[in-house]
Structure formats: C-alpha cells, structure tokens
Amino acid sequence: MRYPPGRGRHDSPTFGDYSCRAMSDVTSPGLPATTPTPAPTPLPVWRRNLAVIAVIATTLMGTLDAAIVNIALPTLSRDLGATPSSTVWVATAFLLATACGVPATCALGDQIGRRRMFLIGVPLFTLSSLACALSRSLPMLVGWRVAQGLGTATILAVTLPLLRTLFPPTKLGSILGVNAMTVALGTCAGPALGGIILHWAHWPWLFLINVPVGAAAFALGLYAIPRISGQVGDFDWLGTVLIAATIACFLLGMRDIVTPELLWRAIILLAVCAVLLIAFLRQERRAVRPVIPLPLWRTGVFTLSVTTAFWSFFGQGVAFIALPFLFQSAYGASPLRSALLFTPWPAVVMLVAPVSGRLADRMRPATLVLTGLSVYLVGLLAIALLGDHPATWQMLVSTGIAGLGFGIFQSPNNRDMQGSAPMRYASSAAAVLNLNRNVAQSVGSAAVSLALVLTGAVSGSLLEEARAATSVLWIAVAGAAFSLVMSALKLRSVRARERG
C-alpha cells in the first residue's frame, strides 16, 4: 500500500484503507458528523480470548442449526405424523425467523447494549433448542424453531460489532477471517454431523447438543464480554416491523415462484414486498435512529462491497443447489459420493479464510477481493466445463479452486464492508452483511429451481436434470463475473481515494 509523502503506516489512524480512529465513532464521507464516543479500555488478552470463544461458539451453533436438521426431515415426518411438505417448515421457519429478526435485533443491540443483547440471545437459543428436543408435535417443533431462529438472529446481530469492539482495527481482518472460517465450518459440518447423530441417536439430539455449548458460552460471555453502553434515542419500531415483513414476503415469494400453481401467490407476495420496501425507505428517512441508516450507502466502498458480496453469494447459491444435480444425475454419483465431491469447496474456505483475513490487515483488502474473485470465477468455469465423463480428481480440483477463490475473497470484502462504516453504524453494517448473504443465496436457489422448471427437469428424467444442472452453472459463472466487475470498480475507487 502506498502512503502520502511524510506519512508512514502507523502515523495515520487507519482502518484498512479508510480513515478511522481505533475503537471510536468517526465521520466517513457522506455521513453526518457526530460526537466521537470514547474508546473502551483494552481488555487483557486472556479475557478477550474468552469473549471471542463465547461469540464464535454461538455463531458456529447457529450456522450448524441452519443445515443440521435438513437431513432429519424424513425422520421427523414419520415420527411426528406429518406430511413431508409440512415438515419442510421445520427448516423454513428457522431461516425465516433468523432473516427477519436480524435487522430488529441489530437495532435493539444498539439501544440496550451489545453485551446485554448477547446475554439475551444465547439463553433464548439454548432454551429453545431444549424445547425443540422435547417437542412431540410438528406445530410445537415449528414454533420453537421460530424462537431458535430469533435467538440465532440475536447472536448474529452482535457478533461482528462485538468482534470489532474487542479487536483493534489492525486486527480486524484476522478476526473476520476466523468468523468466516466458523461459518464455513458450520456449512460444511452441518449435514455430516446431522447424519452421524441420526446414525447413533434419535433426532432430539440434533438440538440437545446446543444446550451444553450454549450454557458454556453464556457463562463465558457473562464473565468476559465488557459492558458497552447503548445509544440514546427512539427505537425505530415501525422500521423494524416494515423490514421484517419485507424480508418475509420476499423469501416466501421467491420460494413460491418456482411452483406454477403458486405463481399467483408469489406475484402477490413480491408486489407486497415492493410496497413494504418503499414504506420502509420513507420511514428510515425520518426516523431518529433508523434500523439501516440510508447515509451508510453514500460511502462508495460500502455499497460496492455489498454489491460484490451479493453477486458472489448469488453464484454460490446457484452452485450449491446445482452441483448435487450435476454429480448425481449427470455423473451417477451416490448421495454420499456427491457430498464428498462437494466437500473441497467449504473445506478450502475454512482453511483459507483466516489466512486471507490476516493478509487483509497487511495489504489493501480490495486487491485481495479482486484476486479471490478471479480465482473463484476460474473455479466455476472449470466446473461448468467438466464435460460428460470427468475424472474424480477433476471434479475435486474444480470445486477446490472455487472454494479457494471464495475463501480469499470473503474476509477482505467483509473487512471493507465493516471498515468503511463508522463504529456507530457497526450493527447496521452487520445487519446488511447477514441480510445480503441470505437474500443472495435465496435468489440463487430460486434461479436454479426456476431453471429446472423451465427446462422440464422436474419431470424426473435424469437426462433432463443433468442438462439443466450444466446449463444452470453458467448462471453461477455470470454471477461471479458480475461480482468481479464490482470488485474492480471498488479497487479503482480505493486507489482514487488514496491518490486524492
């Protein structure tokens, strides 16, 4: 990185490439000036590490619970006497509650304090996990999964702001890399861990494993996480309701849009979503303390980071749905072999993300983002061009390359996104990051499902499924290519700011 004449690396209070004061609330371009908040007293390293363990452990459990139950849906259907289509709500209810709850819990964390919010969210997640294990009917299980999802939303709402408070700006990339590794581990291990638990025990143990982890995390958080005062101001209740309803309508509409007989409902839900979004934006303009402050989007690096992340996660969402069809329908792989062929992607992300995060603390993050997305695009191209009879090593290497690129890109891009937002907007930036990922992956999944419907692959023909999966992968390639363009624009913006 180049520095202006007469200024060295440690002479300027920098946050990545963006002007900032460590642990303080500062003004960014396009954002209104406010009085800086005093920096908290640095914690001893041992206490900080205990706090990080508490935060990371609960993040891992929340990520695991998004996927661990999917493999048990047929078992739940039989044991609870429910239809398979109704049992899907065990997974859907959790995801909906998490996505809809993140904006509200982020804003509430600013209001009452992030430590207090963490100490509310962990017991909610833990006790609702216990209640899920004790459920004896589908409605009861779905209801407690909603509560579990709200607990996860509460934890996710404060994870990044707490990590940003615990670590100085020079270490932000490293800790975001650890967080990305945790999310990748949960994504990778969820289905496998669920299968192992169901092999040796009954389905309630899918939820009971959260109880000791949650109890330990609560005790560590109670002791190690420092007290952080909340912000004074009116809580934007109307804004939180509007954004939650907007997200719910969007996700449900995207789910229904792939079913021809439910297309009318999808159109209504998406139309209502558009109306609610307009109402939300109007509310945010006049709110004293908006849920997602609109001035946050005036910072070019933040907006470009969000757009870059959206299209990369869109490509990932497409690939994650299309690859099982490709491996099983086109290449005749068993479900187990298909899972093994897919494993290099999240496994490499898990290994690379912490390294990439540390590098982002030492060099320009936007450069790493562009490099990672270039490798990611190459990996998706390699998967799309595998042909009819690829060797096993070709499939493993292709998915590994895609995971390598994604692992290089994710932590630096998150660092850009978080680092370009002032500390007072840390929770709002975290809400945008989590929502952006969920919405992008949902749109990617819907794109795959719609493509399968349009190509006739839903008829059950393996040949049609194979052709559709191969075609759909080019949608993932297009998403990666667009994210690469956005990252190039961001790098140009960063260089222009450095020259200016």
Protein model, in words:
With 500 residues, this protein is mainly α. It has 3 domains: 43-230, MFS general substrate transporter like domains (Growth Hormone, Chain: A); 237-287; 295-500, MFS general substrate transporter like domains (Growth Hormone, Chain: A). Helix content is 74%, strand content 1%. The chain is built from 18 helices and 2 strands. The protein has helices at residues 45-65, 73-79, 84-87, 89-112, 114-134, 138-166, 172-200, 205-208, 210-224, 237-256, 263-286, 300-330, 335-342, 344-360, 365-384, 392-419, 426-454, 462-499, and strands at 14-15, 18-19. Strands 1-2 form a two-stranded antiparallel ribbon. A hairpin with a 2-residue loop joins strand 1 and strand 2 (18-19). Helix 1 (45-65) runs antiparallel to helix 6 (138-166), helix 4 runs antiparallel to helix 10 (237-256) and helix 12 runs antiparallel to helix 13. It is globular, with a radius of gyration of 22 Å. The two termini are 14 Å apart. The model is unreliable at 1-40 (pLDDT under 50).
Topology:
Blueprint: E1 14-15, E2 18-19, H1 45-65, H2 73-79, H3 84-87, H4 89-112, H5 114-134, H6 138-166, H7 172-200, H8 205-208, H9 210-224, H10 237-256, H11 263-286, H12 300-330, H13 335-342, H14 344-360, H15 365-384, H16 392-419, H17 426-454, H18 462-499
Antiparallel strand pairs: 1-2
Helix pairs in contact: 1-6, 1-7, 1-9, 4-5, 4-6, 4-10, 4-17, 5-6, 5-9, 6-17, 7-14, 7-16, 10-11, 10-17, 12-13, 12-16, 12-17, 12-18, 14-16, 15-16, 15-18, 17-18
